[in-house]
Amino acid sequence: MLGLRVQASQSREYGAIAKQFPPRDGFQFTLGKPCGQALVEILRPDHHLLEEPGLGGEMLETVNLHLQEKGVRITTGTIVDATIIQAPSSTKNCEQQRDPERHQAKKGKPWYFGMKAQVGVDSKTKIIHTAVVTPAHVADATVLPELLHGEETRVWGDQAYRGQSEVIHICAPRAQDCTHRRYRYKDRIDELERAKNRTKSTIRSKVEHVFGVMKLNFGFVKVRYRGLKKNANRVFAVCALVNLFMVRRKLLQPSVV
User: Fold this and answer.
1) Phi, psi for 36 (deg, rounded to 5)
2) Strand-strand pairing, 29-31 and 3-7
3) Pick from 114, 133, 122: nearest CA to 238
4) pLDDT tens, residue by residue, 96-153
5) Which string of b and e fits 6-37 if b means at least 16 CB within 10 Å?
6) What is the mean pLDDT of residues 82-98?
7) Measured between alpha carbons, how far is 252 from 247 in angstroms, rounded to an integer?
8) Which residues span the domain enclosing 169?
9) What is the pLDDT, as a whole number, of residue 149?
10) How much of the chain is helix, strand and coil, in % rounded to 5?
11) CA-based torsion, 118, 119, 123, 126: positive or negative
């Protein structure tokens, strides 16, 4: 059986949430001792269980369906963004090489080796409705069509998604492109476009809260396994937990009969 252990400082809240998901279909929520910071550990008797097709995706889908039953619905605004999950770059292994399924990418000045967790987040509830895992060198804009559910009226994103208006219109015909525009040029700075980007950031920045919960609360800052399949399942499982965390107060409210 694949067990999912959740250790959190707010063990009482997690206990109440865990009761809403009784052990079934091979999944089990187990509460550990409070440790001051939330951690997620995938406990597995067999590593290949993590390679089962759609295992993590089914967890995310099940959680989102449960949240929908509780009144937390996906709206018509989507924020798209990506974060790099680092991987060990050491070659001290049997093959004496780095993981071939992951690559390096430059963000700012430093280089990072690992993979990208690319997500589509609801602009109102901060719920992750779509997640895609790629090597770190894959451009964010290339997976944009996979991050939209098609019913959007607005799509927010940083400058990595600029120039994708046609793609957005194809995937979501009613959507307005609210991604950031270029404002810095070689000889000038477009202050008007810069001000528009700042206004858009009031909505777009909500996705950073989601990544903060993923990395700081659940400790997902580095990959644990070789290959994308196992780590992708872990990404989807963590996304499901992030969704529960984001709406935990609503889930814990007593239901009115």
Assistant:
1) 85, -25
2) parallel
3) 133
4) 778 888 888 888 888 889 999 999 999 999 999 999 999 999 999 999 999 999 999 9
5) bbbeebebbeebbeebeeeeebbbeeeeeeee
6) 82
7) 9
8) 3-252
9) 94
10) 40, 25, 40
11) negative
Distance of alpha carbon 149 from the chain centroid: 15
Q: Is 111 among the domain residues? A: yes
**Is residue 10 domain-resident?**
yes
Task: Tell which residue, 40, 47, 38, 54, has the closest CA to residue 2.
Answer: 47
Give the chain's count of helices (H) and strands (E). 7, 9
- Is residue 257 one of the residues assigned to a domain? no
Overall number of domains in the chain: 1
- Please report whether residue 91 resides in a domain: yes
Position 53 scores a pLDDT of: 63
Which residue spans within 182-247 are E strands per DSSP?
A: none
> 207 or 5: which carries more pLDDT confidence?
207
| Assigned token pair, 115 | 């993979």
Tokens, residue 147: 């991050």
> pLDDT tens digits for 45-81?
455 665 666 778 888 999 999 999 999 999 999 999 9
**DSSP-derived secondary structure for 91-118:** --SSS-S--TT-EEEESSSSEEEEEEEE
Q: Which of 37, 66, 26 is nearest to 233 (CA)?
A: 26
